[in-house]
Design goal:
By secondary structure, the protein is of the alpha/beta class. 49% of the residues lie in helices and 14% in strands. Helix 9 packs antiparallel against helix 10, helix 9 runs antiparallel to helix 14 and helix 14 runs antiparallel to helix 15.
Length: 458
């Protein structure tokens, strides 16, 4: 079928989003899924955050969702969760005093210190955190507030420190043993990539056995810690065990990152999927029923990898694993696309946040096909709609902008081939997007873009 015929079909099938603050019709299309994955085509577009936030609020308020799980580090997001859930038990206060001192959302977000801070320290997330705090205060049940949790594994040092703080409160001798095990990393915990390089190439002994022993110890003593007196003991045990898992998987991740891209990518997304499953199990035990979680991550993580070029090369991802483990009935994968506009991104890893111009999408890309409908904002459901799914099954280019964006060479590192209808259950297209507004200053570059280098920062 010609592109023009496809465009005409899309114009007929699209659900127009005339007000991106009123997205109830989208949520109704999601149905009864208990795991809803919301993507983004960039890590720095304001509309993506706004739309995801509005969908998330509706899922929480109208469909009883229990938690938000995001592409962020566990200890950083946990501080936000403690703030919005008002977890003020003596045990929590001893483990994370900073969370108890947070008086408003911006302070609760101060834990996000690692690059790229703007992914979570931005005006849209501040508004969402404020809404979550208010929503939880209005709930009648105690201790069941909606939480905010991180799925990622970069927080090697912070997670080890969190384990030691927890054990120092409940079992000082176990804390001493944990310090001894984690001392294997020495000063390299501050720079885990250096640790990974040195361990991979035989310049030092790796710490795999030590982090595994610590996780085993946390599991072995779980019953004793869970039965400890005090409010929130079960929650704090789970949080500490998860930090121990992060430490184990982060150690493995930083070693595998020098052994090929597929190994480290797959380990990271398997960690995300395992964390999501562990979180759902914990919440279900606490509430006595099935847990419902909404996930925020980049399209490259939440779109089924089997429908993409990355899958052809041996990579899997969170969206694929969720579908495989929980089936289509329990899951819904929503992707996001844009044609042009501006974006907050950096020019190099650890570089400052910049407001950058997004180039118009390439010919033969899905973004260009959706742009050519002439529609501004719209939702397109492909799941269970055979005709539309077949129209959007052909592999085309699809753009992915991470925390690094260098427009001059974007075809090489920001585009890949994908089958849209197999990758997502539905998509939201925002034709022109605006740059996310970080809480910190944004650089407005006056120079030509530097040559592109890997990684794109997804």
């Amino acid at each position: 079928m010609s592109d023009q015929s496809i465009i005409e079909a899309l114009q007929r099938e699209a659900l127009l989003l005339n007000d991106i603050n009123k997205l109830g019709p989208i949520v109704e299309q999601i149905g009864d899924a208990s795991i809803v994955l919301l993507g983004e085509a960039t890590h720095g577009s304001r509309e993506f955050y706004r739309i995801r936030a509005e969908i998330t609020k509706y899922l929480i308020a109208e469909k009883g969702f229990d938690a938000i799980a995001v592409e962020a580090d566990w200890p950083d997001a946990l501080r936000v969760s403690r703030y919005v859930r008002a977890a003020h038990s003596p045990l929590a206060a001893a483990i994370d005093p900073g969370a108890q001192q947070a008086a408003e959302p911006r302070q609760a977000l101060q834990g996000f210190e690692r690059f790229p801070q703007w992914m979570w320290r931005n005006t849209e997330v501040v508004e969402l955190v404020a809404w979550l705090k208010q929503h939880n205060q209005q709930r009648t049940a105690q201790g069941d507030g909606v939480g905010f949790y991180g799925l990622d594994l970069y927080s090697l040092r912070n997670s080890m420190e969190a384990v030691v703080r927890y054990l120092s409160t409940v079992d000082p001798e176990a804390a001493r043993q944990a310090r001894a095990r984690y001392a294997c990393f020495d000063h390299l915990a501050e720079d885990p990539q250096r640790y990974g390089y040195a361990a991979t190439f035989g310049m030092r002994k790796d710490c795999e056995d030590e982090v595994i022993r610590q996780l085993v110890a946390m599991t072995t003593d779980a019953r004793r810690y869970a039965d400890a007196d005090g409010e929130g003991a079960a929650d704090e045990l789970f949080y500490a065990q998860q930090n121990a898992r992060v430490a184990q998987n982060a150690e493995a991740y930083y070693r595998t990152m020098f052994q090929g891209q597929n190994a480290s990518w797959n380990l990271r997304d398997e960690h995300m999927a395992d964390t999501l499953d562990a979180l759902r199990t914990h919440i279900a035990q606490r509430k006595g029923g099935k847990a419902k979680v909404v996930v925020w991550a980049h399209n490259s993580h939440i779109g089924d990898a089997r429908a993409t070029e990355m899958g052809d090369h041996g990579q899997l991802n969170l969206g694929q694993l969720v579908r495989e483990r929980h089936g289509m009935a329990e899951t819904f994968l929503l992707g996001f696309t844009t044609h042009d506009g501006t974006v907050t991104a950096a020019s190099e890893w650890d570089g400052p946040a910049e407001k950058k111009t997004v180039r118009p999408s390439l010919v033969n890309s899905y973004e260009r096909l959706l742009h050519d409908t002439g529609l501004k904002h719209f939702f397109l459901r492909m799941r269970d709609r055979r005709y539309l799914s077949e129209l959007l099954q052909e592999r085309r280019l699809e753009r992915a902008i991470g925390v690094i964006y260098l427009p001059e060479s974007e075809r090489m590192s920001h585009y890949f081939y994908a089958s849209l209808s197999r990758q997502f259950d539905a998509v939201v297209h925002v034709d022109t997007t605006q740059a996310l507004r970080p809480l910190e200053a944004v650089v407005h570059p006056q120079h030509d873009e530097a040559p592109e280098t890997y990684p794109t920062g997804i």
